[in-house]
Amino acid sequence: MYIPLQYQNKDLEEIKGFIQENAFAILINQVDGQSWATHLPLELASDDNDSYKLVGHLAKANPQWKSFRTDSEVLVIFNGPHSYISSSLYKKEEVPTWNYIAVHIYGTISILSESELYKSLVALVDRYERDSKHPVSVPEFSKKTMRQIKGVVGFEISVNKIQAAYKLSQGRPEDHDAIVDHLKDSPNAGSQDIAREMKKRRLR
Predict the structure, then answer these.
(1) pLDDT grade, residue 203 (50/70/90)?
(2) How far apart (Å, rounded) are the C-alpha atoms in residues 98 and 179?
(3) Which domain holds residue 104?
(4) pLDDT single digits (tens) 164-200
(5) Which CATH number belongs to the domain containing residue 132 in this structure?
(6) Does residue 161 lie in a domain region?
(7) Cα distances (angstroms) measured from residue 201 to each of 65, 114, 189
(8) How far is residue 197's CA from residue 170's CA, in Å, rounded to a whole number?
(9) Number of folded domains in the chain?
(10) Each residue of 174-198: b (16+ CB within 10 Å) or e?
């Protein structure tokens, strides 16, 4: 994606944290010559060589997986908070804009074996059940329930390139306080999150 230099984020640790907090992603590739997108949760993992991968699954009824090729690249989009920024908050006249955080990952994809899929499902459910009052666990599911696994396809994406855009009014430091004060009082959760991100960077 196009990212002006001042909005590029190269901090891998921060980007990893963002992906983990905004794990519901969009997976995009080509299906019969047309762009195809699926919304799904993805888990970020690393191996012994410090290479990163994304692990997930989708329904076998979804034709997207039949077009997965190890010799072609897929795109994964992780969306974060975003907010309209009114130019009425600026000290000097300028056009309004939009602040946002987004990460694009490009990589090559491969299908998981049944045992690898099972392992990934255990990890996924365990992660999101941590805060449940009565957590469930994949190994505790009945054989009848586990038959549903036959209806999904697991996959792994080897990460080739990461692009991270953190557009947070970096070009208008003189207006940061006014923007943050306005956004933090907004009823919109995305605006409040953008205010926190802007404030966090001012404190560094």
Answers:
(1) low
(2) 12
(3) 5-171
(4) 999 999 999 999 999 999 999 999 999 999 999 999 9
(5) 2.30.110.10
(6) yes
(7) 40, 44, 19
(8) 11
(9) 1
(10) ebbeebbebbeeeeeebbbbbbebb
